[in-house]
Amino acid sequence: MLKLMPDWSIAVSACLLAATRVFTAESAAGLQPLQGKWSVTKTNRENQRYSQLLEIKNDQFTFQIIGDDDRVRRVAKGTVQVEKSGAFEVLKTTAIQSGRSLDELAPAADRRSSVYTLREGKLIIASNFDKEHENEPPAIDSYVHLETPKEDKLLGNWKVAVSMADQKIDYGLRIAKANGKLEVTLISPRSGEHKARLVTYKAEELIMEFDREIQGNKVTVIYKGKLAGDKLSGTATAKGFEDQYSGKWEASKN
Q1: How many CA atoms lie within 13 Å of 22's alpha carbon, on the beta-carbon side?
Q2: d(CA 66, CA 39)
Q3: pLDDT in tens, 135-160
Q4: CB atoms within 10 A of CB 163
């Protein structure tokens, strides 16, 4: 037989749900200034230099220890949130996985709380004060923010509108990165996917070349554009047919 919750239980549940939503919103707002990659260089007991790289993306973190030879020594990743504790801001990490590389991660039964502050553009973290961590003494580190390469801002899915030859045509555009190089796919709802034969990004200008067919003629369509804010825009021309097929294009993130 189904039991109905007393009115007070419903009220308490509603309050807890509301509090959770408020906390989640506050944590997300607190994490906003911490987004991106942060780095600090340190020296170990053997006087060897190494770097700690911390990346926060939304509510997920990735932490890496990198030797002076650029080899990754340790990796950890998991969920991160921020809380206010009196006058202090606390960074809490949970659902932690760790290992020697991103391909060798295993769950770690660990939760960590670190006091932090942002001062003069630096992220200062006091870690390992919450409890004892084996081979990890308490430390205060001052991380500097690493600027995201501008070409990485191009990555993702875009909605594209091309105005050419008195026509306005809609496409999708998928920009990814593999082995340090940009890969672009133009997605047409009429003819499917077309991978760019050539992609370059120099002097903040994106150039993409696609092999296409126009009225039975095989042509190379060249898109040139620049990123302004969260929008891409530029020119589009059909090589060898510039007098007939030249126009403009613009794109926004999906």
Answers
A1: 6
A2: 10
A3: 889 999 999 999 877 888 899 999 99
A4: 13
The model's pLDDT over 60-74, given as tens digits with 9 standing for 90+, comes to 999 999 998 889 999
Asked if residue 175 has pLDDT above 60, the reply is: yes
**Tens-place pLDDT, residues 5-25:** 344 344 444 444 444 444 456
* Domains identified in the chain and CATH numbers: 34-146 (2.40.128), 150-253 (2.40.128.120)
- Which contiguous run of DSSP H or E holds residue 49? strand 49-57
CA distance 54 to 48: 20
Element (H, E) at 250: strand 246-253
pLDDT at 19: 41
Q: How many C-beta neighbours within 10 Å does residue 183 have?
A: 14
Q: What is the distance between the alpha carbons of residues 210 and 194, in angstroms, rounded to a whole number?
A: 7
Asked if 177 contacts 152 with a C-beta cutoff of 8 angstroms, the reply is yes
d(CA 108, CA 192): 44
Gap between the Cα atoms of 236 and 221, Å rounded: 7
